[in-house]
Amino acid sequence: MPKFNRDLPYNKLPDLPPKNNLETTAIFKATIRANKLLAELKGYCQTLPYPHLLLNTIVLQESKESNAIENIVTTQDELYKATLMGDAIKNQAAKEVLQYREAIYWGIEELQKNNLITTNLLVGLMQRLRGSSEGIRKNTGTKLGNPSNNQIVYTPPEGEQIIREKLSKLEVFINDNEFSDLDPLIKMALIHYQFEAIHPFSDGNGRTGRIINVLYLIQQELLGLPVLYLSHYIIQNKSDYYRLLKSVTEENNWEEWILFVVNGVAETSKMTLQKINAILELKASAEIRVKEVLKSSYSKELVDLLFSHPYIKIKVLQDYNIAKRQTAANYLKLLAKDGMLKPIQIWKETYYINTKLIDILSK
Predict the structure, then answer these.
(1) Which residue among 21, 98, 131, 296 has the highest number of C-beta atoms inside a 10 angstrom radius?
(2) 353 phi and psi, to 5 degrees?
(3) Angle of helix 205-219 relative to helix 51-69, nearest 10 degrees?
(4) What are phi and psi of 154, to 5 degrees?
(5) How far apart are CA 20 and CA 343, in angstroms?
(6) Within 10 A of 71 (CB to CB), how many other CB atoms are there?
(7) Cα angle vertex 61, ends 60, 64, to 5°?
(8) End-to-end CA distance of the chain, in Å?
(9) Cα dist. 90→8, 56, 110 in Å?
(10) Which residue, 67, 81, 71, 128, is CA-closest to 103?
(11) How far apart, in whole angstroms, are the C-alpha atoms of residue 270 and residue 362?
């Protein structure tokens, strides 16, 4: 492995795969557990009647957590209000979370065209999550520092041509069946490290890297939808995440890094499954209560809407053809009076909050 100097551009970053033993006993056991839990999550999601509607909230939470790793922090309140504001969003952090979600969905659409994760796809992800037309990093002098003491911890490869060459080699590793004997979860850990080490953009590398994780799982048919809270695991173990990235670069310590990622997949698969179950239980009890409150006006589509938009307003019911304005207002007032929704006034608009759903998502 080339000698590493944190003060110099790491232009000799080795290509994947590393020569290390990537299938130690510890890694083997961890991948078995993680694959089992991931398969359970995928299978469960496939049984849901309208998965995209319900899981929209899950994707939004992953977007929120991933942005929080980069200190782009928004509250649940700001975020869910922003989902209903369209182009009128004033909170920049909430806007960036929504851009992240849109980048994920765009990435999935692109993946469906040819099932390849390419350099152009990575650039497109970054541009969408940042709302930028910028491409591969051209500037010199990029250095990554420790914010607590301002010490340089890493200097990524420098020069557009070198960066493109390294991305091209990464692209081959991701998509080439020559490397298919590696367990996909091990391969995902390698891909994530390599992308972060290349650091191809002036900004948005961490967020793009975390979207690549979920796209790779979808490409490998380990997930059908982007419903893994992996960013939550990273933010809960942020110091270990950066420490282990650093230990791969400086000490060639691949085993600990792979175990960290694979165990993260296992833990977040389990957590996401629990969260979806809790949402479905709440939804089932809500259906009964809505029937009691609205009687013959009960609409299953209305309940679906209440669980895909934790914050809702009259116009949303109109937009989804649930009811005309006056009737929609009446439905929401009745549900608020029953305690199912909590009304709040924001400027001239009344929002109705599904507080129990917000509680589940926030845990």
Answers:
(1) 98
(2) -105, 130
(3) 150
(4) -165, 140
(5) 58
(6) 8
(7) 90
(8) 43
(9) 40, 22, 29
(10) 128
(11) 16
- CATH superfamily placement of domain 25-271: Fido-like domain (1.10.3290.10)
Cα–Cα distance, 105 to 108 (Å, whole number): 5
As given in the structure block, the two tokens for residue 13 are 């970053």
Helix spans in the chain (H)? 25-46, 51-69, 76-82, 92-114, 119-130, 160-175, 184-198, 205-219, 230-236, 238-251, 254-294, 300-306, 314-319, 325-337, 355-362
Residue located via tokens 């920049």: 92
| Residue matched to tokens 């309140």 | 77
Range 299-362 has CATH code 1.10.10.10: yes
Question: Could you tell me if residue 339 is left (phi over 0), alpha (psi between -120 and 50 degrees) or otherwise beta?
Answer: left
The Cα–Cα gap between 313 and 350 comes to 6
Cβ burial 91-115 (10 Å sphere, 16+ → b, else e): bebbbbbbbbbebbebbbebbeeee
CA–CA separation, 41 vs 351, rounded Å? 32
Helices marked H in 17-118 — which ranges? 25-46, 51-69, 76-82, 92-114
Asked if 121 and 174 count as a contact pair (C-beta separation under 8 A), the reply is no
Beta bridge partners of 351: 344
The ranges assigned to domains in the chain are 25-271, 299-362
CB-based contact 86:319 (threshold 8 Å): no
The pLDDT profile of the chain, 363 residues, written as one tens digit per residue, is: 567 889 899 999 999 999 999 989 999 999 999 999 999 999 988 887 666 665 677 777 777 777 666 666 566 666 666 666 554 556 677 777 778 888 998 999 999 999 999 999 999 999 998 888 999 999 888 888 876 777 888 999 999 999 999 999 999 999 987 766 899 999 999 999 999 999 999 988 988 998 999 999 999 999 988 888 788 888 889 899 999 999 999 999 999 999 999 999 999 999 888 888 898 899 999 999 999 999 999 988 999 889 888 888 899 899 989 999 999 999 999 999 999 999 988 777 888 999 998 888 877
Whether this prediction's pTM lies above 0.90 is answered by: no
306: alpha, beta or left, given left = phi > 0 and alpha = psi -120 to 50?
alpha
Strand order in the sheet with 311-312: 311-312, 349-353, 342-346
